[in-house]
Amino acid sequence: MMNYIISKKLRQFLYLVVLTSSPLFTACNSSEQRPAEDKQRIVTLGGSVTEITFALGAGVEVIGTDLSSTYPAEVQKLPRVGYWRTLSAEGVLSLQPSLVLADHECGPPSSLQQIEKAGVPVQRLPESISPEGMRTRIRAIATALSRKEQGEELIRRVDQEYSNAQKLVQALPGKPRTLFVYMRGSSIFSAGGAGTHADAMIRLCGGVNVAASINGMKPVSPEFFMQSQPDVLIVTTSGLESAGGIEPLRQRPGLAETPAVRNGHILVVDDLAFLGFGPRMPEAIRQVAETYAKVLQQSSTAAQ
Fold first, then answer.
1. 133 and 49 in one domain?
2. 288 and 192 within one domain
């Protein structure tokens, strides 16, 4: 009986030896033996592109970005390759990327072409100046990164937040006259006219853009500020910092005479959240809509 048990165990052992050494067994378990694939080395060009890439969970694969990329905080530790509109191919190639994700306005074109000639794929992303454009851009980046499932999940989350923000907009009892001012230093003061990201956001937030008669982002005179009479003035964080704070803005000829400045209705927004049409777009809409509600309430109270 003992001999039979030993023989049976021996046969089982030999069977396992033969099985585990067979090509079929090796093939079935090759995924466990194969080393993990190398991660991509991604350079992102454009603040919105960078923000979406991180929101998709691919931030660990980003090895460099441009100066307009300020969010999330992790990007501050990454190498910078210059400004996305005035790129140097050498700066990008020095990081040895395997993929470049570029905003549709990145340039000059010759720099992107030089990067491609060096054998590095450049994915040019579609324009994003509406909720629909944002969804298209998220899907394009998710596809380029083989993260389609994460892309659809991100869209669902942002759509829900956008829907909630729009409820605030729809509840507004009026449409405040609004002016977006782009500032750089003490000399550059431009108004966000028709066709700009600022114009699109003002309308999404339930306001009226008093600079809609202007095409694009254009410098304007003190007379324009006085004639436009905005109820709300919107500026970006970086613009305000470059101009030296809120006081120089209040003392700007023409602006000081507007209802927005007289009543202290100056709203400071995050550059990318307000202008980038990325994942934080609903957050920016909520911020502006809440400000509009307060301004309209104050106007109603003052009128009584």
1. yes
2. yes
